[in-house]
Amino acid sequence: MKKFTHLLIALITISVPALAQPKLYLNLNSHNEMVGENYDTDSTLFVTSTGFVHDIAQLVVLKNAKWNFQTNSKYVLAALKYQHADTSHSDILEWMNSTGHICIDPRYKTQLPFYTYNIADVVHLLDSAGVPDSKTVGGFIYYPYTSADWAIYTSPVIGTHYGNSWQAEILWGAGSTPPHSHDAHNFGIWKPTGATDSVAFFSHSASGDLWVEGNGCSAVLTDTTDPIAVFNVVKEAANNIASGAWPGDKFYCMSMMINQRDFSSSFVNKVSQLIDSVNTLVSENKVVWASIQEKMDTFQTWSTATMNAYSQWSCESPTLGIPAFRVKNSTVYPNPFSTELKISAEKGSYYRISQIDGRVVSSGYGDENTEIDTRLLSPGTYILSITNEFRREKIIVNKID
Questions:
Q1: Whole-model pTM?
Q2: Which of 157, 257, 33 is closest to 149 using CA atoms?
Q3: Between β-strands 157-158 and 165-166, what pairing exists: parallel, antiparallel or unpaired?
Q4: What CATH number is associated with residue 368?
Q5: How far apart are CA 94 and CA 128, in angstroms?
Q6: Among 98, 148, 215, 385, which is least packed by CB within 10 angstroms?
């Protein structure tokens, strides 16, 4: 009987494999906009910007990274107009897609009276350029909840211009209306129960129609941001996951955001530095480059192995285990700042402004109307930390002359 017990324990041990150490699944993500980016009517702008797009794409391929290039109608119309993307196989869009490192997703952006293309129309335009359908919505509004615009994707969208039918599968980039002070910073993948409030959006519905893929902590590279500061946000998350400081039963996916309006030769160098820095974490087996769809595929495998139907975890207060819908975002403005930085946070919050090397240059207690005198700070990139009983948050801020 004793031998049988040992055999039973051995069989159970063999049949339930140990779960692998969780990793951070990461991609580069970019947007272009309607206002100020008139690629289809300004050939010089299109050629110049496309040169930088090509340079970043080459870096992504060379350094074995992954990039989701999310575009509205204007840039696709420009590729069709100037590069004859409907007949050429060497246009920028089809070439990027052919690399296997870059996925192109549609964005829904309009500009009246001429640009009324909905997301299904953008999918049609991309198809005309030889780009396959990614089934991913490249950015949407979830807050304010009364302005949420993603519910339309639960059913097929019919193109306004071309009459084609398109059905989304993944929602990426849960944002808020400008100034984007309430964007969702969440790890994981889940199906929201609804759009009416925070409880509905951040709660999982087994019968839901759409997956939301979180983009993790706020890691945004701009033309005024130090790439090391952005890398440090990724590094902190990766180290917290690898060390076990964050729960081992969650799925961690994150994106590093860039915007096409910032693309320049100096910005390309910043992207190169950022990718190189991230690759040090890849070599340590803490980070895995993965596109939005690859994250979804990996999540499905993880879900089966762990028997977890979904994963949802807030970047902004993970060590306290508070659900995302209980976290109140702080507002910091202006950013970039000059002589003064204003903070709107929970009463009794402790703030700290640090240089990239960790040296604290300003600190104190604040509330929903805190003004910080920054006249003595040198221009550059800083990390603003805000801590209270509900959360710990880090925000990259930039001082300008």
A1: 0.79
A2: 157
A3: antiparallel
A4: 2.60.40.3080
A5: 10
A6: 98
